[in-house]
């Protein structure tokens, strides 16, 4: 008799466990944050540093790169860095980037940690470098109540 109840208890808990896992995996950024990233991918693909620093990044903005940490306290610092980066990308025959999906996401009222999966393409249409790239972002609202990217953690090189 106890075995029967225990077996039912285990089945119910397994169903609840797997249901909760699928719910967590289904979590996606809000529509407003998705629009921010769609604009970011478009502006990145076009090398539009002015639009990125004026409307995408919040300041101070921190980049955690594989070999260094960069802190941009001003738009002019970030713009200078991005201009150099986009020049390197163009030299490497970069064409554009596409958002491929979302990885780990943690949402709260103040800080949103979002992992984005993306691909970069060469001018000839081939995938540039790693087939699947990811980066993690800290997104929060600025003083004007607009979502901005305040921190980026890259998981692969930016220029190739």
Provide the fold topology.
Elements: H1 2-26, H2 31-45, H3 49-55, E1 57-64, E2 69-72, H4 75-91, E3 94-106, E4 112-122, E5 133-141, E6 147-154
Parallel strand pairs: 1-6
Antiparallel strand pairs: 1-2, 3-4, 4-5, 5-6
Helix pairs in contact: 3-4
Overview of the structural elements:
With 160 residues, the chain is α+β, with helices and mostly antiparallel strands. The protein has one domain: Nuclear Transport Factor 2, Chain: A (Roll). Helix content is 40%, strand content 33%. The protein contains four helices and six strands. It has a six-stranded mixed beta sheet with strand order 2-1-6-5-4-3. Helix 3 packs antiparallel against helix 4. The chain is globular. The N and C termini lie far apart (64 Å). The N terminus is likely disordered.
Question: TL;DR?
Answer:
This protein has helices spanning 2-26, 31-45, 49-55, 75-91; strands at 57-64, 69-72, 94-106, 112-122, 133-141, 147-154. It is an alpha+beta fold and 160 residues long. It has a single domain (30-154), classed as Nuclear Transport Factor 2, Chain: A (Roll), CATH 3.10.450.50.
Structural class of the secondary elements? alpha+beta
Largest sheet features: 6 strands, mixed
Rg over CA atoms: 20 Å
Q: Give the CA-based shape.
A: globular
Q: What is the CATH topology?
A: Nuclear Transport Factor 2, Chain: A
User: What is the CATH level 1 assignment?
Assistant: Alpha Beta
Beta-sheet strand percentage? Answer: 25-35%
Our count of helices gives 4
How many domains would you count in the coordinates? 1
Label the CATH architecture.
Answer: Roll
Mean pLDDT: 83
Order of strands, widest sheet: 2-1-6-5-4-3
Number of E-state strands: 6
- How far do the termini sit from each other? 64 Å
Helix content: 40-55%
Low-pLDDT windows of residues: 3-26
């Amino acid at each position: 008799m106890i075995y029967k109840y225990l077996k039912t208890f285990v089945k119910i808990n397994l169903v609840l466990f797997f249901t909760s896992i699928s719910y967590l995996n289904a979590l996606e950024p809000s529509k407003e944050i998705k629009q921010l990233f769609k604009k970011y991918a478009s502006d990145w693909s076009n090398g539009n540093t002015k639009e990125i620093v004026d409307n995408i990044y919040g300041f101070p903005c921190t980049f955690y790169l594989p070999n260094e940490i960069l802190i941009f306290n001003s738009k002019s610092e970030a713009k200078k860095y991005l201009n150099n980066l986009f020049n390197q990308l163009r030299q490497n025959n970069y064409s554009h980037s596409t958002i491929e999906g979302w990885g780990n996401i943690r949402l709260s009222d103040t800080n949103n940690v979002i992992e984005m999966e993306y691909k970069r393409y060469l001018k000839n249409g081939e995938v540039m470098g790693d087939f699947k790239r990811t980066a993690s972002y800290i997104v929060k609202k600025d003083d004007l109540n607009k979502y901005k990217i305040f921190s980026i953690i890259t998981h692969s090189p930016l220029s190739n």
